[in-house]
Amino acid sequence: MRENSECPSISPDGTRVAYKKDRGGQDWGIAVLDLATGVEHELAEARSVDDQLEWLDDDTVLYGLPRRDEAGVTDVWALDLASGSTPTLFIPQAWSPSVLR
After folding, report:
1. What number of other Cβ atoms are within 10 A of residue 21's Cβ?
2. Domain assignment present for 101
3. What are 13-41's pLDDT values in tens digits?
4. Which secondary-structure segment (H or E) carries 36?
5. CATH number, position 77
6. Can you give the residue range of the structural domain that contains 51?
7. 66, 31 contact by CB (below 8 A)
8. d(CA 40, CA 80)
9. Count of structural domains within the chain
């Protein structure tokens, strides 16, 4: 699909693929590929995301992150695809989300 990318997840409407992208040194960012245009858009998540991405809906991805200040504790975060969006805590003390449709 793309170099330096892993864990693809197709959007519910089938038009995009989200995946984690190696930013170098095992620092993983989030990218979304528009399947119609082939344009890749990197999302605004500064933390390293080493989890399988999941789509909440056609415009929001979910992913797990460990807490920096509490060893062994993780949370699920949500990030809207819109430009200027910031990650929001979605489910505290959870990991690697799965959405039932």
Report:
1. 22
2. no
3. 999 999 999 999 889 999 999 999 999 99
4. none
5. 2.40.128.660
6. 5-91
7. no
8. 15
9. 1
pLDDT at 3: 82
Residue 97 lies in a domain: no
pTM: 0.92
Report pLDDT digits (tens) over 49-78: 999 999 999 999 999 999 999 999 999 999
Amino acid type, 64: G
Is residue 33 situated within a structural domain? yes
AA identity, residue 16: R
Residue 48 maps to a domain: yes
The secondary structure of the chain in percent helix, strand, coil, rounded to multiples of 5, reads: 0, 45, 55
User: Whole-angstrom Cα distance, residue 23 to residue 28?
Assistant: 6
Q: For residue 27, which of 59, 56, 49, 3 has the smallest C-alpha distance?
A: 49
